[in-house]
Structures are given as structure tokens and as C-alpha cells.
């Protein structure tokens, strides 16, 4: 306002009209720019937001599926780990049993060898008895010859010598039978020793195989535990992925689409905004002006 003297009501009304025209023009321009922005943002940017939202949802769905797969793998590896550990326990028990069997076989071999040695010593004793029986038989034969030379006086002695000879012959036959039995026993014991040795060798091979299987199972257990650990560590990463950038992008895209819908719903509010601006501007000027009376609106003058 100009300070050139007393201010009249006509000058205030004139200035009010100028301001009203200026604000109306400004409001129209703002409305035009707003409409242009709505028209511009309604196509490429929102289309990009839709594509980003779609891609983000696809990534989130893939992450969810990957998480489910990881959980399945983790559960399977846990079951496999339990099975492998159970097999390892059984293998260790089998290894212990085979080691006991090997030890028992070795003890059996030693026992059979001891029996074979005892049978050999018995055979030596039987051989000695056989030699004694042979010598006794020779002595009985000599006694019979001497009794025959003695004539009638040696008849009784000849009878005794004959009995001794028969006993010696029976003893020799018995020792021969014992020797034959001992020989058979020794042969059977030798076969038993060889059989037990074969059994011990077979059990040793089984023990070696069980040891190899146990070592392989330990390696499989370690590998399975590593897979389970990786799957367990991957699962929280999938949870973090679900709440990370794809979801945030989807949320932003949804917010952009919602904002576009609100703008389209409002349209171009030029007239309501213009009327509000006019009323607000004139109301302020009416309070300032006082020559034409209180409550005078500039629009009424127009």
C-alpha cells in the first residue's frame, strides 16, 4: 500500500481487487501444474512402480520357496545325521564284537595247540609202553625157551612165561590202537587249528571292513553335519531376505500406486481451492477496511 495521505475505503477495495486477481491467477497456475504433475506421474512412473512391485513380489515368493526348500533340506539332513550316527554306533558295536571274536578265536587256537601238544606227549608215553611190551614179549619168549630146556622142572615156569607173553602182545596191540587214536586226534586238532585260524582271519577281515565302514560313516557324518549347518545358517538369511529390500520395494510401489489413486480421485481441485483463496483473501481485507462499514466483502462490490 502507498502512504500518500489518508487512506479511503475505495482505495482499500481497489487494492483488495488487485490482490484477489493476483491470488486467483496464482491458484489457477498451481492447479494447472498439479494437474500436469498428476498426468505425468500417472503413466511411466506408476508403470515402473507396478513393475517393481511385481518383481519384488516375485523375489519375495522365490525367497519364501527357497526358505521352504532349505527347511526341508535341513530336516532331511537332520534325519540323515541321526541315521548315520545310529549306523556308526552299530558299526562300533560290531567292531567290538568282531574284535572279541578274533580274541576268542586266538584263544581257541592256543587251546587246540595245547591239546595237540598234550596228545603228542600221550603218544610218546604210548610209544614207550609199546616198547616195554615188546621187550616183555621178548623176555617171555626167552623164558619159554629156557623152560623147555629145563624139562619137567620148568613146565610151571613155561606156563607163566606164556601168560606174560600174551599180556605183552595185548599191551602192544592196545598201544598200537592208542597210537592210532592219538594220531587221529592230532590230525583233527591240526584241522581244527587251521579252521580256527581261517575263522580268525575272516573275522579279522570283517573287523577291517567294519573299521573302513566306520571311518567312511564318520566322514559322511561330518559332511552331513556341514550340510545341516549350512542349511541352518541359510534359513535365517532367508528370513532376513523376506523383510529386506524386495518387501520394502513392494511397499514403496504400493504406496506410489495408492498416492496415484488418491490424486486421480481428487482430480483437479481448481474451483474449490480458488473459492477458498478468494474468501480467505477478501475476509482479511474486509477486517482491514473500515470506511464502508464492518463485514463488507469485496466480492459484493464487484
From TrEMBL:
Gene3D superfamilies on file: Methyl-accepting chemotaxis protein (1.10.287.950)
Annotated segments matching region Disordered: 229-302
Keywords per UniProt: Transducer
Example GO BP: signal transduction
GO cellular component: membrane
PROSITE patterns assigned to the protein according to its UniProt record, in alphabetical order: CHEMOTAXIS_TRANSDUC_2
GO molecular function, a single term: transmembrane signaling receptor activity
SUPFAM superfamilies per UniProt: Methyl-accepting chemotaxis protein (MCP) signaling domain
Biased composition (Gly residues): 278-292
Biased composition (Basic and acidic residues): 293-302
Keyword Heme in annotation: no
Keyword Transport: no
Annotated ranges, domain Methyl-accepting transducer: 41-235
Family: Belongs to the methyl-accepting chemotaxis (MCP) protein family.
Protein name in UniProt: Methyl-accepting transducer domain-containing protein
High-level lineage: Bacteria, Pseudomonadati, Pseudomonadota, Alphaproteobacteria, Acetobacterales
Amino acid at each position: 500500500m502507498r502512504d500518500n495521505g489518508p487512506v479511503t475505503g475505495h482505495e482499500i477495495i481497489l487494492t483488495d481487487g488487485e490482490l484477489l486477481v493476483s491470488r486467483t491467477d496464482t491458484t489457477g497456475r498451481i492447479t494447472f501444474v498439479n494437474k500436469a504433475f498428476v498426468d505425468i506421474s500417472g503413466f511411466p512412473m506408476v508403470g515402473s512402480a507396478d513393475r517393481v512391485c511385481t518383481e519384488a513380489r516375485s523375489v519375495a515368493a522365490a525367497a519364501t520357496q527357497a526358505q521352504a526348500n532349505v527347511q526341508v533340506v535341513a530336516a532331511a539332513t537332520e534325519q540323515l545325521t541321526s541315521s548315520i550316527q545310529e549306523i556308526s554306533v552299530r558299526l562300533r558295536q560290531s567292531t567290538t564284537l568282531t574284535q572279541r571274536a578274533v580274541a576268542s578265536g586266538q584263544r581257541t587256537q592256543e587251546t587246540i595247540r595245547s591239546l595237540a601238544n598234550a596228545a603228542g606227549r600221550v603218544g610218546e608215553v604210548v610209544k614207550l609202553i609199546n616198547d616195554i611190551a615188546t621187550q616183555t614179549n621178548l623176555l617171555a619168549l626167552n623164558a619159554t625157551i629156557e623152560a623147555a630146556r629145563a624139562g619137567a622142572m620148568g613146565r610151571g615156569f613155561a606156563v607163566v612165561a606164556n601168560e606174560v607173553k600174551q599180556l605183552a602182545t595185548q599191551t602192544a596191540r592196545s598201544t598200537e590202537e592208542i597210537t592210532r587214536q592219538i594220531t587221529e586226534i592230532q590230525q583233527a586238532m591240526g584241522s581244527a587249528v587251521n579252521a580256527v585260524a581261517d575263522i580268525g582271519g575272516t573275522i579279522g577281515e570283517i573287523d577291517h571292513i567294519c573299521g573302513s565302514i566306520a571311518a567312511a560313516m564318520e566322514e559322511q557324518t561330518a559332511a552331513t553335519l556341514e550340510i545341516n549347518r549350512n542349511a541352518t545358517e541359510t534359513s535365517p538369511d532367508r528370513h532376513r531376505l523376506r523383510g529386506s529390500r524386495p518387501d520394502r520395494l513392494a511397499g514403496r510401489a504400493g504406496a506410489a500406486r495408492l498416492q496415484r489413486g488418491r490424486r486421480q480421485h481428487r482430480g483437479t481441485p481448481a474451483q474449490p481451492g480458488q473459492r477458498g483463496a478468494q474468501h480467505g483473501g477478501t475476509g482479511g481485507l474486509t477486517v482491514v477496511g473500515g470506511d464502508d462499514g464492518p463485514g463488507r466483502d469485496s466480492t459484493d462490490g464487484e
